[in-house]
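Lab notes, practical 5.
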Amino acid sequence: MSNLVWNYRELGNPWLVRILSKLTKEKCPFLVFLVETKARKQKLENVRRALKFDGCFAIDSMGSSGGIALLWKVDWNVRIISYTRCHISASVKEGVNGHKWQFTGFYGHPKTAKRKTSWQLLEMLKPPSPMAWMCAGDFNEILHQEENKGLPVDPTNKLRTSGRYEAAWDLKEECKKIVEYSWKGTSMGVEGAKTMRQRLIDCQRSLSQWNHKEKMIKHKDINHSMRRIRHLQETGIGNHLTEMQSLQKEVELSMATEEIKWRQRAKQHWMKVGDRNTTWFHLQASHRRKTNTINNLEDPQGRVLTKQEDIGDVFTGYFSSLFTTSSPSNFEDCLNALDSKLTIEMKT
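Output from the prediction step:
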């Protein structure tokens, strides 16, 4: 039996959806309980489909806070018993002839003054013996002082996009150092324009080499961090919170980098379609690069041109003739045949 409980901290972060998808593939849970979704039921239905789960029962958030959801596989018979904005209780039967037990997903009230009410509710939810009971969630209680730490800073507060420069590189501290080092590597000479061009070439070359190395190690780093997080979850005794937060921040940063890269590549398709790093989304960005290339062109004489210089000349000639007058003559008769829209009073 495998179940997953996670304080989701807002479904609006697309890389968190991919982290959750990766976790469900690795752990293969039959039940998933999400806390602090900060989303409506329709959004959670989209998450259910993305995770390939069969059932979903969600409690809408109150504005921009709260929100819980329970997802399950069809292999288990799940029946919702009771729910509030702080909990979801369900009767669970494992398969046809499996064990029957009760699951309660619980979210303690975030305000300390109302925490007592949450505990009273939890006491009422306890099932009659001898039924097994599993209660899990975010109780908003600190068991160890080490847990009282701030949340990781969102790495996507300030993002820029420009030219061929990958906006996702802004999230990497190494990028700034590489640009500074490459730029200062060439001193400004007498011919300022040539020196400027050489600096840009050096920066481009250094960034390309650095990006190639990053791609090689990024996939390995994500898998290593996920394995380490899983190990700490299974063997930790409460003194591993700092390392857990550091690993989670690394994984979230890697996911955010990938998200920004494909958002920049697809441009307007991102806002129109709203896709989240799927195969179709990658193909859209790749297809756009392909359609931006002109391999051959037929000129007015019917010849097929393949050289870029000849293709450029055809475009130049076409638009030059399009916006150049042909110097017509004897068109007064045409103008006289047209009815005037100006009255005599208007002319005077």
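Observations recorded by the TA: Residues 167-281 form one domain. The longest strand covers residues 76-83.
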